[in-house]
Amino acid sequence: MGHILVLPEDLRVKLNAANLDANTHNKWVAIGVNTVDDMINRIVNDLNHAYPVLSITSTREENKNTIKSRIDSTGNVSMFVGYFENDKGYVDALFYYIPPDASNANDFFPAKIMPPLFGIYNNIKDRTKDLHIHCMPVFIINLCTTSRVNNASVKKQMVCCETLGFNYYDIFQNGYHDVIGRTDADGNAITELQRLSELDELLGGVTNNKWFEVDYTNKKLKILSTTVTNSTNATSDVYRLSLYVIPAVYFAVDEGFSIDASSISTLGGDVAETLRNFISKF
Fold first, then answer.
1. Residue 265 — φ and ψ, nearest 5°?
2. Helix 114-124 crosses helix 234-254 at what angle (to 10 degrees)?
3. For residue 281, is pLDDT > 90?
4. What is the arrangement of strands in the sheet containing 56-62, beginning at the earlier edge strand?
5. What are the angstrom distances between the C-alpha of 179 and each of 138, 158, 192, 213?
6. Phi-psi region for residue 193, left (φ > 0), alpha (ψ -120 to 50) or beta?
7. pLDDT bucket at 130, cuts 50 / 70 / 90
8. What is d(CA 169, CA 141) in angstroms, rounded to the nearest whole number?
9. What would the DSSP string read from start to end of 131-148?
10. Neighbours of 58 (CB within 10 A)
11. Is 18 within 8 Å of 101 (Cβ atoms)?
12. What is the residue-wise DSSP string for 170-234?
């Protein structure tokens, strides 16, 4: 089954601006890309190579509001989301891009990816028994040429996204699994988290992990909300909290841990309510 990659029209706007920047253009040329159409073709070719099941045959550009309606999301409008449309006209998967000039790359994942997913979840929560926060595969392609993409905080968020099952691809082949910082018995770098303890260690461990606490003796996962309650932008920080605690919840359920989400029971706002509703189903 082939797919049309439906791109948000804002992507071309951002690529046009990036192509006019000499430093960015030089980075494009280094990977064999000269024009905006070249870059779009490169996105298609790289995704087809990395994920053959997508079988992308063409692209189409749509308005962000049209896309929001098409993916059945009641969440915030996002100019960074598109989708894969199959031969029958149905949406099979979601597509996100990190823009070339993402100076706030460390906020991109919670601020641009989680809101539409929560919006989709709100639309399907009464129609399905699926416990996942989203109902379709997610593909994220990184087009960022700024140094922020190599920050440790960004890399940790990439690992969390992969732990959630999202597919991440860097057009410039920047590495990020080094942030895990461990090797297996044969000395090979570990590129996938397998347990709650590994996620806990990635985010700072017992003393520095500000998103959740793990009581390993009594097998309890306690979600923390201090960062949100002390935030000047609580809605954004709930999305950030979600990016870290949802994979922790998945691991906890698989490993037989109980979950204490009482700390988020007093948080206000629609986003916090969605997170509470999601966690309550486990």
1. -70, -20
2. 70
3. no
4. 56-62, 3-8, 81-86, 91-98, 138-142, 167-170
5. 22, 10, 11, 20
6. beta
7. low
8. 5
9. -SS-SS-EEEEE---SGG
10. 11
11. yes
12. ETT----GGGT--B-TTSPBP-S--SHHHHHHHTTHHHH--SEEEETTTTEEEE--HHHHT-SSH
Can you tell me the distance from the alpha carbon of 247 to that of 162, in angstroms, rounded to the nearest whole number?
Answer: 9
Burial 30-42 (b: 16+ CB within 10 A, else e): eeebeebebbbeb
Three-state secondary structure along 247-273? HHHHHHHHCCCEEECHHHCCCCCHHHH
Q: What residue type is 104 in one-letter code?
A: N
pLDDT per residue over 96-106, tens digit each? 999 898 666 56
225 exposed, middle or buried (CB, 10 Å; 0-12, 13-18, 19+)? buried
Determine which helix (DSSP H) or strand (DSSP E) holds 239, and give its type and residue range: helix 234-254
Residue 89 neighbours by CB under 8 Å, 6+ apart: none
* Separation between Cα atoms, residue 25 and residue 35, nearest integer Å: 9
User: Cα(251)–Cα(223) distance, rounded to whole angstroms?
Assistant: 13
**Complete edge-to-edge strand list for the sheet that includes strand 212-215:** 212-215, 220-223, 258-260
